[in-house]
Amino acid sequence: MIYLNVAGLSPFNQAVQQEVASTLEHFSRLLYSEEGIDYYRKTAKRCRHDLAHWLGVENVDCIAFVPNATTASWLVLSRINWKPGDHILTTTHENSTVRKEILGLHTYGVQVHTLDPQSPTELEAEIEHLLLSTQVRAIVISHVSHIDGRIFPIEGLYQLTQRHHALLIVDGAQAVGHIPVHFHDWQPDAYFFPGHKWCAGPMGTGALILGEKFVEHGEECRDWGQESSLPPWLDFELGTQNIGLIAGLAKACNVKRQEAITAPSNDGRRAVWKTCLQKHQGLHILEWDGPHSPGILSFTCVDANAEQFMQRTAITHSLSWKSFSHASFPSNLSIRLSWSIHSPHLEHSTALTFFNTL
Question: Which of 11, 95, 149, 158 lies at a 20 to 30 A Cα distance from 141?
Answer without folding.
Answer: 11
